[in-house]
Amino acid sequence: MNPRLDQLQPYPFQRLKALLAGTRPPEGLAHVNLSIGEPKHPTPPFIKSVLTDNLHGLAHYPVTHGSEDLREAIADWCLARYGTNLDPDTEVLPVNGSREALFAFAQAVIDPTRHVKRVIAPNPFYQIYEGAALLAGAKPHYLNTLPEHGYAMDPEEVPEDLWETVQLAYLCSPGNPTGKVLTLDEWRRWFELADRHGFVIAADECYSEIYFGEDQPPLGALSAARQLGRDTSRLVVFNSLSKRSNVPGLRSGFVAGDAQLIKQFLLYRTYHGSAMNPAVQAASAAAWRDEAHVRDNRRQYAEKFAEVMPILDGKLAFAPPDAAFYLWARVPGGDDAAFARALFEQQHVTVLPGSYLAREARGVNPGRGFIRIALVDGLDQCREAARRITDFVTGSF
User: Are residues 199 and 74 in the same domain?
Assistant: First the structure.
């Protein structure tokens, strides 16, 4: 077996399952699971209709490059959303969800002939970044995102002599779990560093369409590049329909940006065997072309934040996120794992310990003392969970 597999740590939800083992929540108290970022809003009926109407496509092998119609739908969406005119033939590539693409991209980008290989990642982070780096033979270098620094990744924390070993930087905006959106100045800094040191930026934007004002969409990497008068050199953006359109089971997203990188990534994927189901392609094109259901999705999340935050205010310490559907909250007592276990046992509410999403770096685990609350369930369930958390904190601390 590949010895690099031994470097992989248990996934956060495996650790959570072990943490909660042996607990006995009160009988008759319905479970509210706010631990996993799985959208629970109904899938729009038109997406399901297009999917089933195109099942005849199952009789044909799909091409890895995706259908022309889907690539054009994605390019049109990027133009409308980011003001960036992409060539659907060379700068857009459909993928089976951003998760598999974020992982596979590292395998294609990392040069195995270089003796020392580094991948920059935020900390806390989406664990796929770490696994992708390790299995590509690289070593992650974590940049702590701390509340006192506005949850920003500070490139000044990277030693100057380490930059020449960096081949890839994962930037997540809006961030998971903090909801932090990179500013134009932050993008400028990262673009300058990529140009100077020759690494690639993988911009994970799967939460880009969950925000709280229709006139305030989060700044994306493509928009930032355009505003700064640069092209997409060394930049590849990842996005997904899972959160935007409530179709996590569809496994549909895209990669867009630097044409040369896309060309090489397509070559990798041709051998990897990761072409998208033809029926899924048709449904995806329809989803990217419709914004009405996305606006309604945002409305539902905004309602939940408006209800939940006042209930939790004064019980947990948190700042409203810039975007995404997470509350990143500091817990009383400082032990996030103990807090999550006791909350489940006493109130039958599941949240994710923040330390499970982070690694010890420069003497600190920046997730320790925090929990991630995913407001993915219905409004009533989220409101009820917030009340139970309040009762738990009031009675236990």
Answer: yes
Question: Structure pTM?
Answer: 0.97
Residue 259 has pLDDT above 90, yes or no: yes
Determine how β-strand 253-257 pairs with β-strand 317-318: unpaired
Report how far residue 396's alpha carbon sits from residue 393's, in angstroms, rounded to the nearest whole number.
Answer: 5
Tell whether omega for the bond before 124 is within 30 degrees of 0, i.e. cis: yes
336-347 helix and 12-20 helix, angle to the nearest 10 degrees:
60
Residues 203 and 123 occupy one common structural domain = yes
Domain end marker among 258, 290, 322: 290
- How many Å apart are CA 260 and CA 233, to the nearest integer? 9
pLDDT in tens, 50-70: 999 999 999 999 999 999 999
The CATH number covering residue 375 comes to 3.90.1150.10
Query: Does the N-terminal peptide bond of residue 218 adopt cis geometry, omega within 30 degrees of 0?
Result: no
pLDDT digits (tens, 9 = 90+) for 271-284: 998 999 999 999 99
Instruction: Identify whether residues 99 and 230 lie together within a single domain.
Output: yes
**Cα distance between residue 204 and residue 202, in whole Å:** 6
Residue span of the structural domain in which 22 resides: 3-42+293-396
Q: Would strands 370-374 and 326-330 be described as parallel, antiparallel, or unpaired? A: antiparallel
Q: pLDDT tens digits for 357-387? A: 999 999 999 999 999 999 999 999 999 999 9
Please check whether residues 232 and 324 belong to one and the same domain. no
